[in-house]
Automatic annotation (TrEMBL):
Cellular localization per UniProt: Cell membrane; Endosome membrane
Domain (G-protein coupled receptors family 1 profile) ranges: 34-312
Protein name per its UniProtKB record: 5-hydroxytryptamine receptor 4
Main subcellular location of this protein, as a coarse class: membrane
GO molecular function annotation: G protein-coupled serotonin receptor activity
Entries under Gene3D superfamilies matching the protein: Rhodopsin 7-helix transmembrane proteins
InterPro entries reported in the protein's UniProt record: 5HT4_rcpt, GPCR_Rhodpsn, GPCR_Rhodpsn_7TM
Transmembrane segments: 20-43, 55-77, 97-115, 136-156, 190-210, 260-281, 293-315
Membrane topology: Multi-pass membrane protein
Any one of the GO CC terms: plasma membrane
Keyword Zinc: no
Length: 387
């Protein structure tokens, strides 16, 4: 939920204004291009369309694209001109879109974490039963419908201003001689409810999901290490060197996975926590938060829409390959090799940025059956690409 208050900011010098315009323009441009690239990549790449998680990625990119096109420009105009340039109705619509789209973006991040939890922490059959096409559609619908109950419905009805109408009028009259200045303030119930729905509950679910993903991946790595040591007891010295190399590779892989999860959660909290903490605290300190701090927290949240394509797509090998094909006009060098081609079966699976070490691996003594090996290729629901 992103209530925007247009308190008059201090006047900028010309260099400050130019620097601010350049920065805001770069944020909007990078956000538009990054999210468009994600959407085009999934539309053009058949392998990416087979992964259920990528439907959340595309819907997330669409929400962030709308934030970049419908929300950021108005915020930039208000920040630079320091007053409203439209009427009260358009102000309410613009603010409702702000709350709707940014909340939708956050709820998509929550759904992605839950999808990863089922894909990584559960058996493949459980994942297929949990993440059916109907359930995916319902989750996507919820990401767009739930925000409407804390955006257009209460804002257009004026529920957010109950009990503080006099404060809003005083802020509007003191902030500018322009009676159409867009001032948006929220009472305590609205601030608490919206912050819970749009940030604190999704944050709690994401922390739980990613914590379980991390623990599960570490446990799988430990099990594989134990199996390899047991299976490699009677293997010659040359094979032992190969096993050591594979164990080192898995250790590096798990370290990378842990870092990726930390980056995802770190960026999300860094971008949105300042705003939602301020949003909850402000009504309880008589709306004394400085306008400059509000603007900084708000745009830090907007920047999350620019970072999402990087965190959830650019860090993924399959997406990077699709991007290179698009940007390099389909050069054969970047074409995807067949997943059923010759070569050793994969022992790791990268699911949109986090790495899942499989519960079984192909040991040097070949103890796995052909049926087990085939199941690895057939399980395309929870598997995306080999590392």
């Amino acid at each position: 939920s992103l209530p925007l208050r247009a308190n008059a900011l201090s006047n900028y010098t010309l260099p400050e204004r130019l620097a601010l315009i350049t920065f805001l323009s770069l944020v909007m441009l990078m956000s538009v291009l990054g999210n468009l690239l994600v959407m085009v990549a999934v539309c053009k790449d058949r392998q990416l369309r087979k992964i259920k998680t990528n439907y959340f990625i595309v819907s997330l990119a669409f929400a962030d694209l709308l934030v970049s096109v419908l929300v950021m420009p108005f915020g930039a105009i208000e920040l630079i001109h320091q007053n409203g340039i439209y009427g009260e109705t358009l102000c309410l619509v613009r603010t409702s879109l702000d709350v709707l789209l940014t909340t939708a973006s956050i709820l998509h991040l929550c759904c992605i974490s839950l999808d990863r939890y089922y894909a990584i922490c559960c058996q493949p059959l459980v994942y297929r039963n949990k993440m059916t096409p109907m359930r995916v559609a319902l989750m996507l619908g919820g990401c767009w419908v739930i925000p409407s109950f804390i955006s257009f419905l209460p804002i257009m009805q004026g529920w957010n201003s109950i009990g503080i109408t006099n404060l809003i009028e005083a802020r509007r009259s003191s902030g500018s001689s322009n009676s159409t200045v867009c001032v948006f303030m929220v009472n305590k119930p609205y601030a608490l409810t919206c912050s819970l729905v749009a940030f604190y509950i999704p944050l709690g679910l994401m922390v739980l999901a990613y914590q379980r993903i991390y623990v599960t991946a570490r446990e799988h790595a430990r099990q594989i290490s134990v199996l390899q040591r047991a299976g490699g007891a009677g293997i010659a010295g040359a094979t032992s060197d190969s096993a050591d190399h594979q164990r080192n590779h898995r250790m590096r892989t798990e370290t990378k996975a842990a870092k990726t999860l930390c980056i995802i959660m770190g960026c999300f909290c860094l971008c949105w926590a300042p705003f939602f903490v301020t949003n909850v605290v402000d009504p309880f300190i008589h709306y004394t938060v400085p306008a400059q701090l509000w603007a900084a927290c708000l745009w830090l949240g907007y920047i999350n829409s620019m970072l999402n394509p990087i965190l959830y797509a650019f860090l993924n090998k399959s997406f990077r390959r699709a991007f290179l094909i698009i940007l390099c006009c389909g050069h054969k060098r970047y074409r995807r090799p067949s997943i059923l081609g010759s070569g050793a079966p994969c022992t790791t699976t990268q699911i949109n940025g986090s790495t899942h070490v499989l519960k079984y691996s192909i040991l040097h003594n070949g103890t796995h059956t052909e049926q087990e090996k085939l199941s690895l290729h057939n399980d395309t629901e929870s598997q995306e690409s080999c590392l």
